[in-house]
Specification:
Blueprint lengths: L1 H8 L1 H35 L1 H16 L2 H11 L9 H26 L4 H8 L4 H16 L1 H14 L11 H12 L2 H32 L6
Length: about 220
């Protein structure tokens, strides 16, 4: 009981870490989605750019996330570029998960029926407009479970940023347990908070599924 009282008194540290985790996750999720769409569009355009973008995606898929975070935070100063821990962590999240989202969308694009695209081309739509208004909405609805799963991975990857001194939720809990030696209550609370955020993500994906079903995507 005393341990939980101590944890309650240290709640500001936990809440500070929670808000930073949520902020990192939200901003990196938006940034990764935008990057993934840009990468997919570039691959669709073909040419040398497509080859470079495919190489980028393959490199990120082969690279552990923590190594990328280390490289940005500890490696870049060797070439004169210094980033604070939060900035380095945020950039690592965007780059890493943007590559995975691009691959998820690309896989769905390969099996997308061509009918709507051909109809748009017949009506004189430009390639960029076709991608944004015709292709991308269909890909998002078709890949919503995979995107939801990738977002959960991104949420969990925020905990790795503690290694580069980002004071997110896991780092905050570790600081509390190190100060008061209450590892069990501290990390139980962290588990529950991560679980709560994950449930919210799952509900959002479910809502997206309902949205898609109303527009004829219930069987995709």
């Amino acid at each position: 009981m005393i341990e939980w009282t101590i944890l309650w008194e240290a709640r500001d540290t936990i809440l500070s870490g929670l808000w930073l985790t949520i902020w990192l996750f939200a901003v990196s999720a938006v940034g990764a989605f935008v990057l993934g769409c840009v990468v997919l569009y570039g691959i669709e355009r073909g040419g040398a750019l497509a080859w470079l973008l495919r190489a980028f995606v393959n490199a990120m898929r082969a690279l552990p996330f923590l190594v990328l975070a280390y490289l940005l935070y500890y490696g870049l100063p060797q070439v004169g570029v210094r980033l604070n821990a939060v900035t380095a962590g945020l950039i690592a999240m965007i780059i890493y998960h943007g590559a995975y989202l691009a691959e998820i969308l690309r896989g769905s694009r390969l099996v997308l029926p061509p009918g709507t695209i051909e109809a748009a081309q017949g009506h004189g739509f430009m390639p960029r407009a076709i991608f944004i208004y015709i292709v991308l909405p269909q890909l998002l609805l078709r890949t919503r479970p995979l995107i939801g799963n990738q977002l959960i991975y991104a949420l969990k990857d925020t905990s790795f940023l503690a290694i580069i001194t980002v004071q997110e939720l896991t780092a905050a809990a570790n600081a509390v347990q190190a100060s008061y030696f209450i590892p069990m209550p501290a990390f139980v609370v962290v588990i529950l908070l991560y679980w709560a955020i994950t449930v919210c993500l799952e509900l959002a994906v479910k809502r997206a599924g309902i949205f898609g079903a109303k527009r004829g995507f219930e069987n995709v």
